Protein backbone atom coordinates (compact mmCIF):
# COMPACT_ATOMS: atom_id res chain seq x y z
CA UNK A 1 0.00 0.00 0.00
CA UNK A 2 1.37 3.43 -0.90
CA UNK A 3 2.26 5.59 2.06
CA UNK A 4 0.16 8.73 2.43
CA UNK A 5 1.95 11.88 1.33
CA UNK A 6 1.64 14.78 3.76
CA UNK A 7 3.51 17.26 1.58
CA UNK A 8 4.39 17.02 -2.13
CA UNK A 9 6.67 19.48 -3.94
CA UNK A 10 6.80 19.61 -7.72
CA UNK A 11 9.57 21.58 -9.46
CA UNK A 12 9.61 24.46 -6.96
CA UNK A 13 11.87 27.34 -8.02
CA UNK A 14 12.59 30.70 -6.40
CA UNK A 15 14.89 33.55 -7.42
CA UNK A 16 16.04 36.61 -5.49
CA UNK A 17 17.32 38.80 -8.33
CA UNK A 18 20.36 36.98 -9.76
CA UNK A 19 20.39 34.37 -6.96
CA UNK A 20 18.62 31.06 -7.66
CA UNK A 21 17.52 30.11 -4.11
CA UNK A 22 15.57 27.01 -5.26
CA UNK A 23 15.98 25.26 -8.58
CA UNK A 24 13.24 22.79 -9.58
CA UNK A 25 12.96 20.98 -6.22
CA UNK A 26 10.60 17.96 -6.08
CA UNK A 27 10.05 15.46 -3.25
CA UNK A 28 7.32 13.89 -1.10
CA UNK A 29 7.09 13.78 2.70
CA UNK A 30 5.47 10.51 3.91
CA UNK A 31 2.91 10.62 6.74
CA UNK A 32 4.34 9.79 10.16
CA UNK A 33 7.94 10.50 9.13
CA UNK A 34 10.48 12.74 10.84
CA UNK A 35 11.72 14.36 7.64
CA UNK A 36 14.97 16.31 7.61
CA UNK A 37 15.74 18.95 4.98
CA UNK A 38 19.53 18.93 5.28
CA UNK A 39 22.10 21.20 3.72
CA UNK A 40 24.78 23.80 4.38
CA UNK A 41 23.74 27.41 5.09
CA UNK A 42 22.53 29.02 1.86
CA UNK A 43 21.20 25.76 0.42
CA UNK A 44 17.58 27.00 0.23
CA UNK A 45 16.09 25.17 3.23
CA UNK A 46 14.49 28.21 4.88
CA UNK A 47 13.20 29.52 1.54
CA UNK A 48 11.58 26.13 0.91
CA UNK A 49 9.83 26.12 4.32
CA UNK A 50 8.68 29.72 3.83
CA UNK A 51 7.12 28.81 0.45
CA UNK A 52 5.19 25.78 1.72
CA UNK A 53 3.91 27.91 4.64
CA UNK A 54 2.76 30.58 2.14
CA UNK A 55 5.10 33.21 3.63
CA UNK A 56 6.91 33.46 0.27
CA UNK A 57 5.67 32.89 -3.28
CA UNK A 58 7.58 30.54 -5.59
CA UNK A 59 8.48 31.80 -9.09
CA UNK A 60 7.39 28.46 -10.53
CA UNK A 61 6.35 24.97 -9.45
CA UNK A 62 3.60 23.74 -7.16
CA UNK A 63 3.14 22.08 -3.78
CA UNK A 64 0.26 20.36 -2.03
CA UNK A 65 -0.57 19.52 1.59
CA UNK A 66 -2.54 16.33 2.34
CA UNK A 67 -3.07 15.85 -1.40
CA UNK A 68 -4.83 19.23 -1.78
CA UNK A 69 -3.80 22.61 -3.14
CA UNK A 70 -2.73 24.86 -0.29
CA UNK A 71 -5.50 26.95 1.28
CA UNK A 72 -5.92 28.66 4.65
CA UNK A 73 -8.08 25.94 6.26
CA UNK A 74 -5.28 23.39 5.80
CA UNK A 75 -3.03 25.77 7.73
CA UNK A 76 -4.76 24.76 10.97
CA UNK A 77 -3.47 21.21 10.53
CA UNK A 78 0.15 22.43 10.55
CA UNK A 79 2.14 23.72 13.54
CA UNK A 80 5.18 25.88 12.75
CA UNK A 81 8.28 27.17 14.44
CA UNK A 82 10.09 29.16 11.73
CA UNK A 83 11.49 31.76 14.10
CA UNK A 84 11.62 32.12 17.89
CA UNK A 85 8.23 33.31 19.18
CA UNK A 86 8.08 36.41 21.38
CA UNK A 87 7.18 35.16 24.84
CA UNK A 88 6.65 37.55 27.75
CA UNK A 89 9.61 37.16 30.11
CA UNK A 90 7.76 37.83 33.37
CA UNK A 91 4.70 35.70 32.57
CA UNK A 92 4.54 32.02 33.45
CA UNK A 93 4.69 29.21 30.89
CA UNK A 94 0.92 28.71 31.22
CA UNK A 95 0.12 32.40 30.78
CA UNK A 96 2.34 32.63 27.69
CA UNK A 97 0.58 29.62 26.14
CA UNK A 98 -2.84 31.10 27.00
CA UNK A 99 -1.88 34.20 25.00
CA UNK A 100 -0.55 32.04 22.12
CA UNK A 101 -3.77 29.98 22.15
CA UNK A 102 -5.91 33.15 22.00
CA UNK A 103 -3.91 34.47 19.00
CA UNK A 104 -4.37 31.13 17.23
CA UNK A 105 -8.07 31.07 18.19
CA UNK A 106 -7.69 27.85 20.18
CA UNK A 107 -9.18 27.17 23.60
CA UNK A 108 -7.06 26.62 26.72
CA UNK A 109 -7.95 22.93 27.05
CA UNK A 110 -4.82 21.83 25.14
CA UNK A 111 -2.26 23.64 27.32
CA UNK A 112 -1.80 20.87 29.88
CA UNK A 113 -1.19 18.28 27.12
CA UNK A 114 1.47 20.31 25.30
CA UNK A 115 3.28 21.30 28.51
CA UNK A 116 3.45 17.64 29.55
CA UNK A 117 4.67 16.69 26.09
CA UNK A 118 7.41 19.33 26.40
CA UNK A 119 8.34 18.07 29.89
CA UNK A 120 7.43 21.47 31.38
CA UNK A 121 4.29 20.68 33.39
CA UNK A 122 6.20 20.84 36.70
CA UNK A 123 7.41 24.34 35.74
CA UNK A 124 4.08 25.57 34.38
CA UNK A 125 3.88 28.45 36.89
CA UNK A 126 7.55 29.50 36.56
CA UNK A 127 8.37 32.74 34.78
CA UNK A 128 9.72 32.36 31.25
CA UNK A 129 12.81 34.38 32.29
CA UNK A 130 13.86 31.56 34.68
CA UNK A 131 13.94 28.91 31.91
CA UNK A 132 17.14 27.51 30.37
CA UNK A 133 17.59 27.91 26.60
CA UNK A 134 16.49 24.30 26.06
CA UNK A 135 13.33 24.87 28.13
CA UNK A 136 12.54 28.06 26.21
CA UNK A 137 12.81 26.17 22.93
CA UNK A 138 10.65 23.32 24.27
CA UNK A 139 8.01 25.90 25.25
CA UNK A 140 8.20 27.32 21.70
CA UNK A 141 7.57 23.83 20.27
CA UNK A 142 4.74 23.34 22.79
CA UNK A 143 3.18 26.57 21.49
CA UNK A 144 3.43 25.26 17.90
CA UNK A 145 1.66 22.07 19.03
CA UNK A 146 -1.42 23.88 20.40
CA UNK A 147 -4.54 22.59 18.63
CA UNK A 148 -2.87 19.21 18.04
CA UNK A 149 -1.65 19.74 14.45
CA UNK A 150 -0.91 16.68 12.29
CA UNK A 151 2.35 18.20 11.06
CA UNK A 152 5.06 20.18 12.83
CA UNK A 153 7.43 22.36 10.77
CA UNK A 154 10.72 23.39 12.44
CA UNK A 155 13.53 25.56 11.09
CA UNK A 156 16.90 24.76 12.73
CA UNK A 157 15.27 23.76 16.05
CA UNK A 158 18.54 23.36 18.00
CA UNK A 159 20.26 26.57 16.82
CA UNK A 160 22.03 28.39 19.65
CA UNK A 161 21.42 25.68 22.25
CA UNK A 162 24.03 24.11 24.53
CA UNK A 163 24.58 20.30 24.36
CA UNK A 164 21.99 19.66 27.11
CA UNK A 165 19.39 21.78 25.30
CA UNK A 166 20.15 20.05 21.99
CA UNK A 167 19.61 16.63 23.62
CA UNK A 168 16.27 17.82 25.10
CA UNK A 169 14.95 19.01 21.73
CA UNK A 170 16.09 15.83 19.96
CA UNK A 171 14.31 13.69 22.57
CA UNK A 172 11.15 15.73 22.12
CA UNK A 173 11.21 15.42 18.31
CA UNK A 174 11.78 11.65 18.54
CA UNK A 175 8.86 11.36 20.97
CA UNK A 176 6.57 13.35 18.63
CA UNK A 177 7.54 11.01 15.77
CA UNK A 178 6.70 7.95 17.89
CA UNK A 179 3.29 9.46 18.65
CA UNK A 180 2.55 9.78 14.93
CA UNK A 181 3.09 13.52 14.36
CA UNK A 182 4.81 14.16 11.02
CA UNK A 183 7.78 16.43 11.72
CA UNK A 184 9.53 18.37 8.93
CA UNK A 185 12.72 20.04 10.09
CA UNK A 186 15.42 22.04 8.32
CA UNK A 187 18.95 21.59 9.63
CA UNK A 188 22.56 22.10 8.57
CA UNK A 189 23.70 19.50 11.14
CA UNK A 190 24.24 16.00 9.80
CA UNK A 191 24.42 14.67 13.36
CA UNK A 192 20.95 16.01 14.14
CA UNK A 193 19.33 14.45 11.06
CA UNK A 194 21.11 11.14 11.61
CA UNK A 195 19.94 10.96 15.24
CA UNK A 196 16.27 11.98 14.89
CA UNK A 197 15.07 11.71 11.28
CA UNK A 198 13.61 8.74 9.40
CA UNK A 199 13.83 10.45 5.98
CA UNK A 200 16.06 13.14 4.52
CA UNK A 201 16.32 15.47 1.51
CA UNK A 202 19.84 16.83 0.99
CA UNK A 203 20.12 20.24 -0.68
CA UNK A 204 22.97 22.41 -1.91
CA UNK A 205 22.66 25.88 -3.47
CA UNK A 206 18.94 25.43 -4.17
CA UNK A 207 19.32 22.02 -5.83
CA UNK A 208 18.00 18.74 -4.42
CA UNK A 209 20.95 16.31 -4.44
CA UNK A 210 19.19 13.23 -3.10
CA UNK A 211 16.14 12.20 -1.09
CA UNK A 212 14.89 9.06 0.68
CA UNK A 213 15.12 6.99 3.85
CA UNK A 214 18.03 8.13 6.04
CA UNK A 215 19.60 4.65 6.08
CA UNK A 216 19.62 4.51 2.29
CA UNK A 217 20.71 8.09 1.57
CA UNK A 218 23.46 8.13 4.18
CA UNK A 219 24.49 4.50 3.84
CA UNK A 220 27.85 3.98 5.51
CA UNK A 221 29.20 1.18 3.39
CA UNK A 222 32.15 -0.80 4.73
CA UNK A 223 35.37 -0.91 2.74
CA UNK A 224 37.87 -3.77 3.06
CA UNK A 225 41.57 -3.15 2.41
CA UNK A 226 43.80 -6.07 1.41
CA UNK A 227 47.29 -6.70 0.07
CA UNK A 228 49.45 -9.72 -0.79
CA UNK A 229 53.02 -10.29 -2.06
CA UNK A 230 51.68 -11.03 -5.58
CA UNK A 231 49.47 -8.02 -6.33
CA UNK A 232 48.59 -9.20 -9.85
CA UNK A 233 47.33 -12.57 -8.62
CA UNK A 234 45.39 -10.88 -5.79
CA UNK A 235 43.70 -8.49 -8.24
CA UNK A 236 42.61 -11.41 -10.45
CA UNK A 237 41.12 -13.21 -7.44
CA UNK A 238 39.33 -10.11 -6.13
CA UNK A 239 37.72 -9.50 -9.53
CA UNK A 240 35.94 -12.87 -9.20
CA UNK A 241 34.79 -12.49 -5.57
CA UNK A 242 30.96 -12.74 -5.27
CA UNK A 243 29.14 -9.43 -4.66
CA UNK A 244 32.03 -7.17 -5.72
CA UNK A 245 30.76 -3.61 -6.17
CA UNK A 246 34.03 -1.74 -6.51
CA UNK A 247 37.77 -2.45 -6.56
CA UNK A 248 40.53 0.13 -6.55
CA UNK A 249 44.27 0.23 -5.94
CA UNK A 250 45.34 1.82 -2.67
CA UNK A 251 48.81 2.07 -1.06
CA UNK A 252 50.23 -0.96 -2.85
CA UNK A 253 47.11 -3.03 -2.11
CA UNK A 254 43.40 -2.83 -2.92
CA UNK A 255 40.20 -1.38 -1.45
CA UNK A 256 37.02 -3.36 -2.16
CA UNK A 257 33.34 -2.71 -1.44
CA UNK A 258 31.02 -5.73 -1.43
CA UNK A 259 27.24 -5.75 -1.93
CA UNK A 260 26.30 -8.75 0.16
CA UNK A 261 27.69 -7.85 3.58
CA UNK A 262 30.61 -10.25 3.47
CA UNK A 263 32.96 -10.00 6.44
CA UNK A 264 36.72 -9.46 6.33
CA UNK A 265 37.11 -13.07 7.53
CA UNK A 266 35.14 -14.34 4.52
CA UNK A 267 37.34 -12.30 2.16
CA UNK A 268 40.42 -13.78 3.84
CA UNK A 269 39.04 -17.34 3.45
CA UNK A 270 38.12 -16.69 -0.22
CA UNK A 271 41.64 -15.46 -1.04
CA UNK A 272 43.18 -18.44 0.79
CA UNK A 273 41.03 -20.82 -1.31
CA UNK A 274 42.50 -19.12 -4.42
CA UNK A 275 46.01 -19.89 -3.12
CA UNK A 276 46.70 -16.33 -1.92
CA UNK A 277 48.00 -15.54 1.57
CA UNK A 278 47.17 -11.96 2.52
CA UNK A 279 49.82 -9.93 4.31
CA UNK A 280 47.38 -7.11 5.15
CA UNK A 281 43.63 -7.07 5.86
CA UNK A 282 41.64 -4.20 7.41
CA UNK A 283 38.03 -3.06 7.63
CA UNK A 284 37.49 0.66 7.02
CA UNK A 285 34.08 2.00 8.00
CA UNK A 286 32.94 4.90 5.86
CA UNK A 287 31.50 7.54 8.16
CA UNK A 288 28.17 9.21 7.51
CA UNK A 289 30.07 12.47 7.59
CA UNK A 290 32.22 11.29 4.68
CA UNK A 291 29.05 10.38 2.77
CA UNK A 292 27.50 13.81 3.47
CA UNK A 293 30.68 15.63 2.37
CA UNK A 294 30.76 13.45 -0.75
CA UNK A 295 27.18 14.44 -1.59
CA UNK A 296 27.51 18.16 -0.86
CA UNK A 297 30.87 18.51 -2.59
List the helices and strands and how they pair.
Blueprint: E1 5-16, E2 19-30, E3 34-38, H1 45-52, E4 60-65, E5 68-69, E6 78-81, H2 93-103, H3 111-117, H4 133-144, E7 151-155, H5 163-178, E8 182-187, H6 190-196, E9 199-204, E10 207-213, H7 214-217, E11 222-227, H8 231-238, E12 244-250, E13 253-258, H9 264-273, E14 280-285, H10 288-296
Parallel strand pairs: 3-8, 3-9, 6-7, 7-8
Antiparallel strand pairs: 1-2, 1-4, 4-5, 9-10, 11-13, 11-14, 12-13
- Main beta sheet: 6 strands, mixed
* Side-by-side strand order of the widest sheet: 6-7-8-3-9-10
What is the ordering of alpha helices and beta strands? Answer: EEEHEEEHHHEHEHEEHEHEEHEH
| β-strand number | 14
> In terms of structural class, how would the helical and strand content be classed?
alpha/beta
Mean pLDDT: 89
Quickly count the helices.
10
Share of helix, binned:
25-40%
The fraction of residues assigned to DSSP E strands is: 25-35%
Amino acid sequence: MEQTKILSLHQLSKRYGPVQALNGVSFDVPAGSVFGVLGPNGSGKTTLLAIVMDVLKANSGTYSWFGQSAHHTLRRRIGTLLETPNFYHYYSAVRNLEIAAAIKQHGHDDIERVLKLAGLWERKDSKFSTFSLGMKQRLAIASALLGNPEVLLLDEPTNGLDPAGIAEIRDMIRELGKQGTTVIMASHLLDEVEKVCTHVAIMKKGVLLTCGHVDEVLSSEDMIEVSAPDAGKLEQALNTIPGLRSLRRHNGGFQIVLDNGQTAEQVNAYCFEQGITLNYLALRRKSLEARFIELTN
